[in-house]
Amino acid sequence: MENILNQIREFADHAHGDQTRKYTPERYIVHPVRVMETLRSYDLGLPVLAAALLHDVLEDTTTTSQEIVLFLRTLMDNKEAEETVSLVEELTDVYVKSDYPQWNRKYRKMKELDRIAKTSPTSQTIKYADIIDNTNEITIKDPDFAPRYLKECLQILQVADKGNKELHKRALDGIKAGLDQLKR
Predict the structure, then answer these.
(1) Burial 52-76 (b: 16+ CB within 10 A, else e)
(2) What is the mean pLDDT of residues 68-90?
(3) Could you give the number of structural domains in the chain?
(4) Global pTM?
(5) Do 178 and 102 have their domain in common?
(6) Is residue 114 pLDDT above 90, yes or no?
């Protein structure tokens, strides 16, 4: 499985190209890798770990679902490849500013909440790991924007409550700790 995950990591890293994390000069792939590592100890299977590595590819690159599934079929069976892409699609924001410029951030986020509430427990579990990683970084690196972002994540956790309960609690605790840290 490690060889497969390494190839998926390389694919995701290549897809993200020269993108870096918002607050550091690190290559973007460090975030999906941390999300995957958070999930690894929960024995959730290859499609989940693969989706964690790929979770921002559709949203942040020009790579398509079809390109991802074709690549994954070279590494795993069709069912696993389809499951992975389905999870990545569920994790991809639909109501983004570039597609809905007439809507303000609050309205787009409200529409995303409605969409996220209907996603699978598995994609919600990956979202928890994503929130955990982003929460740690944003609280330290962007204390001005962090309160707004953390409150949006809190709203996500309120509607996305079907995933792994332990990870949900870790995400919730991380948000609360971040908000408390910002109050000091």
Answers:
(1) bbbbbbbeebebeeebbbebbeebb
(2) 98
(3) 2
(4) 0.96
(5) yes
(6) yes
